[in-house]
């Protein structure tokens, strides 16, 4: 680790007293990622009876101009195939009161019953729209990349609903929590 002093001189800080090695098991990596707090989101695509969705924590802002987000979806998931084919998806950052929706879309409910959880409507595009979320977006896929068994989808935001008064649902150390500063 390198840091600069007030004199703009580079100094090398000693590494923490931890074991360093090249081989990292998937269990160890999952443990490290569990320490990374993340917003709980639901990504959906498809229309009418062909709707699919999944809970994700691998999502973030990519660009402000144009407004674009990036989401990661398992390449084998039917949701990834729908998003690739239709070139659109919807996204919702869940509020702390939407744990049941998060659980349903995380696989605790069969795909046919997932949309029974939450207050759903649809965007003018026909994509599913989840109300009562902190933020919800209707997105057009502008790019996708296959990487490490996942597809990264860039979605340009066409429409948005925002409610900053709602506390976000956070996933941290394999548990739901919330952070709300008012």
Molecular structure report:
The protein has 182 residues and is an alpha+beta fold. The protein has one domain (38-178): Electron Transport, Fmn-binding Protein, Chain A (Pnp Oxidase, Chain A). Helix content is 15%, strand content 43%. The protein is built from 3 helices and 14 strands. The protein has helices at 26-34, 78-86, 99-108, and strands spanning 2-4, 10-12, 38-39, 41-45, 52-56, 59-64, 67-74, 88-93, 120-122, 128-130, 135-147, 150-162, 169-172, 175-178. Strands 5-4-8-11-12-7-6 form a 7-stranded antiparallel β-sheet. It has a 3-stranded antiparallel β-sheet with strand order 3-13-14, with no helix packed on it. β6 (59-64) and β7 (67-74) form a beta hairpin. The longest helix is centred in the middle third of the chain and has 10 residues, at 99-108. The mean pLDDT is 90.
